[in-house]
Amino acid sequence: MPRELAILACSECKRRNYTTTRNKRTMTNRLEMLKFCPAERKRTVHKEVK
Q1: 2, 10, 22, 41: most buried by Cβ count inside 10 Å?
Q2: Within its chain, how far is the Cα of 10 from the centroid?
Q3: pLDDT at 1
Q4: Which CATH class is domain 3-49?
């Protein structure tokens, strides 16, 4: 199966807030998205963690 689960953590508070899927074959690097962090109450960069 080429799609895998990716867990996104806030870069400021380090909490794991979101999950999404990504295609392993086409996206070889880690995901980085601008998402809303409920703890910080603002939009922050969320990075994929292992």
Answers
A1: 10
A2: 8
A3: 72
A4: mainly beta
